[in-house]
Amino acid sequence: MSIPDLPTIPETSAQSKSGIAYHILGTVQQTLAFDLQPNQTVFSDTGALSWMTATVTMNTTSGGGLGGMFKRAVSGATAFIIDFAAQGAPGHVAFTTDFPGKILPVELDAGQSIIMHKHAFLCAEKTVTLDVFFTRKLGAGMFGGEGFILQKLTGPGITFAELDGDAVEYHLKPNEVMRVEPGHVAMF
Q: Are 160 and 33 spatial neighbours (Cβ–Cβ below 8 Å)?
């Protein structure tokens, strides 16, 4: 009797502009795995880690002092940031989504920003800045389903969004407008 071959898990492999190799595994509840070289660092909120090799170190930081901790706590994120770095040898670290959905990589140029709903941030390269973004329109904040507080990530570097369910991506041209019910906007 022979054991049948197990199906393989779908995988997308790529590399950021700075050279960090990553893999997005699975279809229903995706996992993001990094192959870190020595001194490469990624960061995430607390509780996002799935697994890591012994060559990866974890360092908890306030990520901007008391002000940064307070802003993240107000936005619904965790107060602390966790850095994951390969020390002395290559390492492997992985993060998994909280709910079935998609992981989207977003490569940001220097000074380029993206706004995400408050639970979309999964992790980013250490060169990316994570901050809080406040909705300016009262109606969008009150009736949009996501509230007044969002997260802003600014490059350079790669960041990863964790989106529940499937995602449809649109790239608008200059002066092109699309009206979307705010509860359905993952990031812009």
A: no
Instruction: For 147, list phi and psi in degrees, rounded to 5.
Output: 80, -170
Q: Which pLDDT belongs to residue 132?
A: 82
pTM over the 0.85 mark:
no
Note the pLDDT tens digit of each residue in 6-32.
Answer: 667 788 999 999 999 999 999 889 999
Q: CB–CB of 55/91 below 8 Å?
A: yes
**Residues recorded for the chain:** 188
d(CA 65, CA 60): 12
Domains of the chain, each with CATH number or no CATH: 11-184 (3.60.160.10)
Residue 146 pLDDT class (50, 70, 90 cuts) = very low
Tokens of 158: 């790669």
Cross-strand bridge partners of residue 70:
none
**Tokens at 157, concatenated:** 């570097």
Calpha distance 79→178 (Å, rounded): 34
Rounded Cα distance between 21 and 158, Å, is 11
For the segment 54-66, the average pLDDT, to the nearest whole number, is 80
The answer to whether 126 and 153 have CB atoms below 8 angstroms apart is no
